[in-house]
Amino acid sequence: MIYFSGLVVCLLVLTAEAYVESGSEAFCADAKQCLVYNVTCKTDDYEVRSYESVYVAATLVNASTLEEAQMIGYPRLLAYFNGSNDMGVSIDPVAPGLVIVPHNKEPEYFIQIALPAEYQQEPPLPTDNSVFVTYTPPTTFYVVGYHGKKTDQKERKTIESLSRDLDSAGASYIKEYHFSATYIKPGPARNMYNEVAFYVMDEPVCED
User: Fold this and answer.
1) CB 132: neighbour CB atoms within 10 A?
2) Sheet holding 177-183, edge to edge
3) Tens digits of per-residue pLDDT, 126-160?
4) Distances in Å between the alpha carbon of 95 and those of 12, 16, 49, 64, 206?
5) 53/148 Cα distance (integer angstroms)
6) Do the beta carbons of residue 38 and residue 50 sit within 8 Å?
7) Is the model's pLDDT at 23 over the cut of 50?
8) Are 90 and 44 in contact (CB under 8 A)?
9) Are 173 and 75 in contact (CB under 8 A)?
10) Mean pLDDT in residue range 178-184
11) Is 61 in a helix, a strand, or coil?
């Protein structure tokens, strides 16, 4: 199994106004807290983002598809946020939810949700052995987004397009897995906003 040290990372904020500069306010308007990032540079095809460290609740899922992994993993994590922890407290999850998607024939998906600012110093411990709390390091990503319900087909098409753009630009990135983020909004599936990302290696490339 790949050790996913390059997990999504963030600084957390308590109000919507505090993350306006990140450019994510349209996608996080319905979340009490949201991952914050700095945009290093952008092209017509993707943008480069840097994130800081954060505690996340996470779980590993063996599944044949991304959709199946999410159906198994997210309920585990939401149970933790709804009180299945050693403090017995309900916790507001931080948007977005994130899945690390390996590119192999027997994938083990790493699914995570960041803890809010008030629990970053002392994260509650899960009571479910399949859930754990871990601390993620600072990272930089190549990112592109798309709207609508997340499906394996749409995800694959988007990540293949991003990979082609990065290869054309001569960018260096980890190709063995990608990051899949979802900002869930109320209403129909078309309101959902998703992002895919690759972990940046060396200096980021951001030239059209």
Assistant:
1) 15
2) 38-42, 47-51, 139-147, 193-199, 177-183, 94-102, 108-114, 54-62, 131-136
3) 999 999 999 998 999 999 999 888 888 999 999 99
4) 10, 12, 16, 25, 26
5) 29
6) yes
7) no
8) no
9) no
10) 89
11) strand
DSSP state of 120: S
Q: Which tops the pLDDT comparison, 167 or 29?
A: 167
| Alpha-helical regions (H) of the chain | 66-81, 152-169
Report the distance separating Cα 83 and Cα 167, nearest Å. 44
**Structure token pair of residue 16:** 């919507």
- Region at 155 (left for phi over 0; alpha for psi -120 to 50; beta for the rest): alpha
On whether the CB atoms of residues 206 and 42 are closer than 8 A, the answer is yes
Backbone angles phi, psi at 35, to 5 degrees: -65, 135
Beta-carbon contacts of 105 under 8 Å, excluding residues fewer than 6 positions away, are none
Higher pLDDT, 157 or 191: 157
When pLDDT is averaged across residues 75-79 and rounded to a whole number, the result is: 97
102 strand-pairing partners: 177
Q: 96: cis peptide before it, omega within 30°? A: yes
Count CB atoms within 10 A of the CB of residue 17: 9
Q: Tell me the C-alpha distance between 199 and 2, whole Å.
A: 14
| pLDDT tens-place string over residues 40-62 | 999 999 999 999 889 999 999 99
Length, in residues, of the chain: 208
